[in-house]
Design goal:
The chain has 84 residues and is mostly helical. The protein contains three helices and no strands. The protein is rod-shaped. The N and C termini lie far apart (66 Å).
C-alpha cells in the first residue's frame, strides 16, 4: 500500500498565480522600493560629504572623489536636494 503524499501537488493555475505574484513583487522591488532605497543612500552619501567637508576636505576634492559636478556638490554640502 502506497502512502498518500502529505501535500498535494500544486495545481497549474495556482503555480501560474504564484509566478505572477513573484513577478509583481520583483517589479515593485526594482521600482518603488528601489527609489526609496536610492533616496536613502543618496542622503547617507550627502551626509558623509558634509562630514568630510566639516573635517577640512575642500569641495573640489569631494567632487572629484565622488564623481559629482561642483554645482551638485555645493548643493549637497548646503543640505539642498541634488538631481539624483
Amino acid at each position: 500500500m502506497l502512502a498518500n503524499p502529505t501535500t498535494p501537488a500544486p495545481r497549474p493555475l495556482t503555480r501560474w498565480t504564484g509566478r505572477a505574484l513573484l513577478h509583481w513583487a520583483r517589479l515593485l522591488q526594482h521600482t518603488v522600493a528601489g527609489l526609496d532605497r536610492r533616496k536613502a543612500l543618496v542622503a547617507r552619501r550627502n551626509s558623509a560629504m558634509r562630514a568630510a567637508h566639516q573635517h577640512g576636505i575642500d569641495r573640489d576634492a569631494i567632487a572629484r572623489a565622488v564623481g559629482l559636478s561642483t554645482q551638485q556638490t555645493r548643493k549637497a554640502l548646503k543640505g539642498e536636494p541634488t538631481v539624483e
